[in-house]
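[job 4471] stage=fold_predict status=RUNNING
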Amino acid sequence: MSARTPVPAAQRFGDDRAAKVRFRRAVTLLLMTVVLPGSAQLAAGSKRVGRLALRVWLVLLATTGLVVGISLLWHGFAFALFLKPSVLGFVRLLLCALAIGWALLFMDAWRLGQPLELLRKQRLAVVGLNGMLCFSIAGSLLFASHVVAVQKGFIATMFGSSTVTKTHDGRYNVLLLGGDSGRDRWGLRPDSITVASIDADTGRTVLFGLPRNMLNFPFPKGSVMAEQFPDGYDCGSTCELNSLSTWAQDNKALFKGVANPGVEATAEGVEGITGLKINYYAMVNLQGFRNLVDAVGGLTLNVRDRIPIGGVGGPVTGHIEPGVQKLDGFHTLWFARSRESADDYSRMARQKCVMNAMLQQLSPQTVVTNVEKIAKASEKLVTTDLPASELGTFAELAMKSRSQPVSTVSFVPPAISTSHPDIAKIQGMVAAAVKGSAKKKVAAAGAKPKHGFSTATKAAGSSVGGSLGNLHDGYAANASTDLSSSC
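[job 4471] inference complete, writing structure tokens
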């Protein structure tokens, strides 16, 4: 037939219909690969490859469903499983293998669609669709693999200790230290000292706040510091609680085999004061804390008074205005640290409110969706001796504690003199708080706790330095059976 000879209408219609059929077939093979990887090969290619891919996919679906089902019934299983570096390493490799395998299946499905037999526009459409599906699915899997690798590296770096300690009277006691982030002082002088005493069964938590300027306190018998100061830490105004770290760093030879003498000495001082045995510690770099708050999108806090930014040795450069608001890392840090126009004990109360906000507002979803930012921020955030093997346990306890009120007890005026503390009274306060937190039912709002005054009374009063209460009567967040209501 010559080029001038017209093509019969029936032939043109047949060619168009065949082209449409081939195009639909090519698109269908790609979509089959999205829903059931390997199904395109079973239908039009190597059945051996198709069966293998489909079996792998079904096994993965069944395993994922089983893990999700168990995790919904038992949260601890998920924490224990996905906070282990070995499991995370396996998941990372699996995700990489899935990305490569799925991409190869897409390329094969595109080949099976016989793209050279398609019309030009159809061929371009199939190429575009294949590229979009291939890169979106494989790219998502590779990105997930990267996130898992970041989490694995974070856990391996931050939680390298292998020493696991048992509970003490059914509780974990974790020493929380806020490191003074002044130049040349990080890790040497704790700016904030708190013990989180956590019920190992219920997760119910009591925060014990210790003033950094406490003097004249004992150490546990047999400890390094007790040998050096058998009559207690009573060498004058320079022997404050937060100076223990500096003293120990200057006398490292006394702490043989101890990785962080400053923290060890501080822990011994805290144990001597409270009578609690410390399980683990976490020392937070307050400047790194700023980055962490930014990484999770900020914290919502109730700013009760105008909080100065700066001051105490430097100029006041701004203020945090009153009101319930979401603060970024910079302003959250100043909310917790500001001492201008406030006393240390008001600041301690504000710091506890920040701790409570972190506990209540950092949901698992927030952590998972910001894991890379959190890991990057945490590189300069935390030093801890919590073993990686215990992460699952503490993650589960954190989930339990979110649904319960946090109690606080602080050893500050008017209850306790920081220059001549009544150690017996302090340890009595600790015992009473621990006993109260172990009860299944929390005291009703407005009930007057043994130490301090009622939450209802505090809520009705005025605030000083951003904290409910005052120096004479005490601050609400420093002595509360429900920290949320005191902030």
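[job 4471] summary: The chain is about 50% helix and 15% strand.
[job 4471] exit 0
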